[in-house]
Specification:
The protein is mostly helical. Helix content is 79%, strand content 0%. The chain is built from 5 helices and no strands. Helix 2 runs antiparallel to helix 3. The longest helix has 36 residues, at 42-77. The protein starts with a helix and ends in an 8-residue tail after the last helix.
Length: 173
């Protein structure tokens, strides 16, 4: 099913905005995490981690979910499909991975924010705080990869896409 051009353009705009916004929000999250790791002031660090919690829940999560949903709508409503081209499938799977990792990290982010706001010893939180930075850096790499895939659109059909393009799926019993 192909979407009407106006709907396709609207979902594409929402998809691009949410995808690029999630990349920018993760970059902000990473910057705050790096400053928090290097901060000697407990009050400053506490404020940073509370801000990181808000950014993760109120900006990154909605943008990643919007990117996932609009990307799926775009794939299903255009000739690209979800399973026809390797780049679309890779982008979809990477976005799902991003969403799952983010959802799994939300408890840790909230824990670090609450603990830092209460002024717990920074040495006790070094592992979790470092984990937030590592996961954010990994998230940036994944989000940049999805952006590059969507711009370059490397050639290559999946096995399913090749069979569909060559009409072999219609001949199956």
């Amino acid at each position: 099913m192909t979407m009407p051009p106006a709907l396709r353009k609207f979902t594409l705009v929402v998809h691009v905005i949410s995808s690029v916004s999630s990349l920018g929000a993760v970059a902000c999250f990473l910057a705050l995490g790096l400053v928090g790791l290097g901060s000697a002031d407990a009050q400053t660090a506490g404020s940073l981690y509370v801000a990181m919690d808000a950014i993760a829940r109120l900006v990154i999560l909605p943008m990643v979910l919007a990117s996932l949903i609009t990307g799926l709508v775009q794939a299903l409503g255009t000739v690209w499909g979800v399973f026809l081209h390797y780049w679309v499938l890779a982008k979809f799977l990477l976005t799902v991975l991003t969403a799952v990792v983010l959802l799994l990290q939300l408890d840790l982010i909230g824990y670090v924010a609450a603990a830092a706001a209460k002024g717990l010893a920074e040495a006790d939180l070094l592992g979790p705080r470092s984990s937030l930075v590592v996961h954010a850096a990994g998230g940036i790499v994944v989000l940049i990869t999805t952006t590059v895939l969507s711009i370059y659109k490397p050639r290559g059909l999946t096995r399913y896409g090749w069979r569909k393009q060559h009409g072999q799926l219609a001949n199956r019993p």
